[in-house]
Amino acid sequence: MQGQDIALLLKLATQNAPQVPPKDLAESLFISPSEVSKSLQRSVKSGLLHIANGEKRVDQSALMEVLSHGFKYVFPPAKGFLARRPHGCVGGAFVVPPSRPTFRTCGSNLT
Questions:
Q1: Which CATH architecture has domain 3-73?
Q2: Residue 53 carries which DSSP code?
Q3: What is the SS3 assignment for 45?
Q4: 92 CB contacts (<8 Å, ≥6 apart)?
Q5: How far apart are CA 80 and CA 78, in angstroms?
Q6: Are 30 and 39 in contact (CB under 8 A)?
Q7: Per-residue pLDDT tens for 77-107?
Q8: Phi-psi sector, 93: left (phi>0), alpha (psi -120 to 50), beta
Q9: What are the domain boundaries of the chain?
Q10: Which letter does DSSP use for residue 66 in this model?
Q11: Which of 8, 50, 66, 94 supports an S-S bond with 70, CB 3.0-4.6 Å?
C-alpha cells in the first residue's frame, strides 16, 4: 500500500455516491487515472475495498484498523524471502519467531 491508497479510501468513504468514476477520483485527488486504477487494485487485494457492479464500498472497520494499526496491511509478511543481516541471512516472516518486546526501567528485574 501507498499513501495515496489511504487518501483514495478516505475519499471514497466520505462520499455518498458509491459509483464514482475513476476519472473524477483522479481529478479530485490530483493524481493520474492510472494511479487511481493501481490504487483501487491494491485496496481490493488488501481487503479494504469491495467493488461490485461498479459500486465501490470501503470496509470502514478495516480502514479504521489501518489508520490505527496499519502495519498488518501496509507491510504484509512475504513468505520465503531472505534478508541480509550483519551476521548472515535471516529467513522471512514465517521462519523467524516473533520478537517479544521487553521494557526495562532503571533498577527493574523485569524480562
A1: Orthogonal Bundle (1.10)
A2: T
A3: helix
A4: 77, 78, 79, 80, 81, 82, 83
A5: 6
A6: no
A7: 666 655 555 555 444 554 445 555 555 555 5
A8: alpha
A9: 3-73
A10: H
A11: 66
Q: What percent of the chain lies above the pLDDT cut of 70? A: 63
Lowest mean per-residue pLDDT among 61-65, 74-78, 96-100: 96-100
- Tell me how far CA of residue 86 lies from CA of 26, 43, 98, in angstroms: 44, 35, 19
Indicate the pLDDT class of residue 34, thresholds 50, 70 and 90. very high
Secondary structure E strands in 20-104:
49-52, 55-58, 83-85, 88-90
Q: Which residues are CB-contacts of 43 (< 8 A; sequence separation ≥ 6)?
A: 1, 5, 8, 9, 49
Measure the CA angle with vertex 48, ends 47 and 52; round to 5°: 80
Residue 1 · residue 42 · CB < 8 Å: yes
